[in-house]
Give the backbone structure.
Amino acid sequence: MGGDSSPEDRVKGALLAATELDVEVALVGPEDVIAAELAKHPKDARISVVNSADAVSMEEDEIVRTVRRSRDASTYVAMEMVKCGEVAGMVSAGNTGAVMATAFLSLGRIEGIERPAVALVLDYNGKRVLLIDTGANVDCRPNHLLQFGQMGSVYMNKVFGLPRPRVGLLSNGEEASKGNELVVDAHERLKESDLNFVGNIEGTHVHQGSIDVLVADGFTGNIALKAGEGIADYIIQQVTAAIKSKPWLLVAGVILKPAIKRQLASMQYHETGGAVLLGVDGIVVIAHGRSNAVAIKNALRVAKVAAENKLMETMRASFSRTPRPNSFPATN
Amino acid sequence: MGGDSSPEDRVKGALLAATELDVEVALVGPEDVIAAELAKHPKDARISVVNSADAVSMEEDEIVRTVRRSRDASTYVAMEMVKCGEVAGMVSAGNTGAVMATAFLSLGRIEGIERPAVALVLDYNGKRVLLIDTGANVDCRPNHLLQFGQMGSVYMNKVFGLPRPRVGLLSNGEEASKGNELVVDAHERLKESDLNFVGNIEGTHVHQGSIDVLVADGFTGNIALKAGEGIADYIIQQVTAAIKSKPWLLVAGVILKPAIKRQLASMQYHETGGAVLLGVDGIVVIAHGRSNAVAIKNALRVAKVAAENKLMETMRASFSRTPRPNSFPATN
C-alpha cells in the first residue's frame, strides 16, 4: 500500500511476477481490499495475503515519528517479514522517505555502512548505469561517497554480473581538481580505494557506456536525475508539437512513433524496476509511486535476482572489513 | 581569440552583427590574422581591428597566474577597452575560467557583490530561464545564492524587460525543507528578500514557464545543465537510430526533421548568444567555445542589448544598498 499506484496495478503486477518469474508473492495490506482485487483474477497458489493496516500517509517532516508509532502499517509488516526471513525481499511503491525510515527501524544498517542510499539503474538502451545516491542523503561527507561507490560496485557485480564495475564520480569536469570540496575530497578516497574508479564524469557523458556506477551525494544525484527528466519531457513535448503542426507531418509521426518508443523504452521506470535501498540489512526495492503492473512485476524481478545472487551476503562481507562508524544519525 | 571557434567564424559573426544589429565591432587579436580574414569580405566601416597578442592557452590550474603575466593577450586588451569606456561591452569565445580571471583583474567586481557568476539563458521555445551560476563558484554560501538571485533579477529586468522576474531556487523538492544545508538556508534568505521569490523548483519543472531566474551554486547548476545536455544528446541519438532502422522510417524522418529542428532550435547556444558574466564591472559575454558566425552575432546582440538598457548602471545601483563584503577570494 502507499504511493499513487492502485491496488489493482499492484495485484496485477504480483500475478504477472508469479507467472513470468516463477516467484511466490505475499501481498501485505488490508486483507479485504486485497482480497477484493484478487477475486477479479483466476486463483494463483503462489499469491498469499498478509493482513496489515493501510500505509500511513505522512508529511515529509513527520516521517520518522509517524513510522515509529505505525508498526502495524503495511510497509513495517512487510519489512519485518524480510527481517525474520519469511520472504527474500520486499517491494514498496510508497513514499521513499517512509520506506527508508521504516527500513532503518526494522532492518537496520549493515555493519560498517554509514549511510544507506537509494540507487537507481539508468538504462540507456542496454548501457546500464547505477546512480547512487538519488536523494536519500542530501548532505554527505567524502567517506559516504566512497561507500556509495562500494555499495554500487557490489550491486552491479551481484545483480548484473559485472566482474569489476567501473565507478565514476559525478562532477563538473573530468580533471581530479574539478568539483566542489566534497567531490574533490571524495575523488581522492575513491582513487586510493580498491574499487575500479575511472575518475570524474560529467552529465554529458553518463549515457555513453564508460561507467557502471555513478556516485553522487543525494542532492546532486537527484538534481541530475530530474534535470534529465525535465529535458526529456521538453524534447518529447516539442517533437510532438512539430508532428502536430501539419497533416503530412502527423502521418510521418504516426509511422515513426512505435520505433521511437521502442528505442527509448529502456529509460522508463516501468522497465527498470525501480530503485533499490542499499545499506540496510535486507532487500528493499522502491518502485515508482505511479507504477503500473509491469513496473511492479519488474520491481519484484529485481528483488528476486538480488536474493538469488546473494546480494546481502556479499554486501555484509564487503563491509565487514570496514571499521564501524559512529556517525550515522540515530533513528532509534 | 581563444576557444575552438575559428577566426573565420568570429569575423563573419562580427560582420553579421554590424549589418543586422547596426553596431560597431572592434576585433581584438593579432592584426595580421584578423586582417587576412577580413580581406575575404567586402569592407565594412563599422569593423575595426585592435592589435594584441593571441589568447594564451592555459591549463585550468594555471589560469590566474597566466592571466597576470599576459596583459597583452586579446582578452585582457578587450577587457581594458570595456573598462575605459572605448567599447560598450565585449564578447569572448575563450576559456570561461580565463575570461573570468581576466575580468576580475581588469574590471573588478561591482561594489557589494561577493561572487561574480556566469549566467546562461535557457530558452524553452520562448520560455526563457536565466540559470545562475553555471559553474563559476563550486562552493557557495547562502548569501552568494541570494546575490545570484538579485543579479539574475536585474539582468532579466533590464535585458528582457520583465518588470518583476520570478526567482526559483533549484532543489530536490518544492517544500522549503527540501535541499541540502546550503539550499535550505538560501531559501530562507531569498524568502526574506525583496526579490519575487517563488520558492524551490525541481529540474522536472524548469521548462514549464513558472520562473524567470533559476538560482543554483555553480557546481549544482553545472551538473543540471550537463545532465540535461546528456539526455538531450541521448534522445536525439536514439530517435536517429529509430529513423534509420527501416527505409520507410527514414522517409518519415526526413519529412519531419526540419519541423523538429525548428521546434528545438531555441535550446541551442547558437541562438541564445552565450553566457554572461555577472557581478564584474562591465559587460562581458562568454560565447560557446565552438561558436559559429550566428552564435558570435547573437553574443554581440546580448552585449548590445545589455549596454543599451544600462545593465551595469542598474546592477551598481541595486547593490549599492548592500553592505560591502570582505569574503571574496582575492585575485590581486
